[in-house]
Amino acid sequence: MDSRKIGAIIAVFTLVAVGAAAAYVVLDKEDEKDLRVVYLNKSSYETQVIAKEKGFFDKAGVSIEHITVTGSGADAVNAMLTGSADIAACGDGPAASALNKEGDRIVVLCNVNKSTGNQIWVSGPDLANKFVLYDKENPNKEAVRDSWAAAAASKAGGEKFIKLGVQKGATSESELKAWLDFMGIEYSDFGKAREGQPVQLIDAKANTLVSLLDAKSIDVMGASLPYPANATDMVTGAKAVGNNSDNGSFGISCYITTKEVYESKTEAVKKFVEGVKLASDYMADPANENECVTICANVFGTEAKNVRNVFETADFRVDWDDGSAEVLYNTVKNKGFQDKVTLQMCKDACPADLKAHIASLYA
Q1: Which of the listed CATH numbers 3.40.190.10, 3.40.50.300, 3.40.50.1970, 3.90.79.10 matches domain 34-115+250-361?
Q2: Which band of pLDDT confidence, cut at 50, 70 and 90, is reported for residue 20?
Q3: CATH class held by domain 119-243
Q4: Domains 34-115+250-361 and 119-243 share a fold
Q5: In the chain, what percentage of residues exceed pLDDT 70?
Q6: pTM for the model
Q7: Fewer C-beta within 10 Å: the chain N or C terminus?
Q8: Torsion 290-292-298-300 (CA) sign
Q9: Strand 106-115 with 119-123, pairing
């Protein structure tokens, strides 16, 4: 073949290839989302689910890639810190751990729900009837403490301690420890229980706790809804034996990111917060409760009654005020991080311009 024809053919193929590559890049750019958000399809993440399902992020003018993980908020934060997401939805436990590990690199965007009573401890059938429940009207901490010691002593075999499963690093861990401290119940901090410690904490992924309880690999589990409700539904004889409302402890559901993401995507992040605020307003309206409960129950794969319990105690509002910072700092202290994370650090974790933007949304 003539060399000029060969050259012409090569030129044509080159132009086609370059054009195809260019088209591919354009399409890829169009498909790219403004932000990647990682969360769990479970209780405490209702705001994210409603914002997604009702299209509130679109209304706020921001496109979101929704990434779900299993386990707890600690897994969401780990995904964010390894670069798999820009923003992580989590509770105060993982947020406190992130501040302890990363310092002022962590930016708190907002709190979306402050609630109590949805961190619940469920006993398997062997010990369920041995625990005394706490009575707020007639405080009986000593009776609760003594019942846990007696339950541990009653176990058959050589292990005279209660194996209590909870995910290390999750909000449930700090809430459970605060409850145990309040009741005066000694526990091993994920180590072998010593004499005088009726409880041994066992690290386990939150989504495995029900099966571990059913298999009697643990005696008691601590987690947020819906796992406790799943346990009482699926494990014959399982009973709730306490929750974080006993000691008046509140948890928060919040969003965090890194300083790099916030500084490079400030406007997108603010629009994201606007979408979250739209969802919070919608959820706070009693007229929308049944719809929101149904949506969340379907997404979570749980019964509507379990979701409704959250709505009955929740305070759906976007903010980062001193009250939110104090809840976070209480968790910091429960985790023993106060040498590195101060109350002022918790207050300042949300940038001043973002606080002002949130305030303007309610003006």
Answers
A1: 3.40.190.10
A2: very low
A3: alpha beta
A4: yes
A5: 91
A6: 0.77
A7: C
A8: negative
A9: unpaired
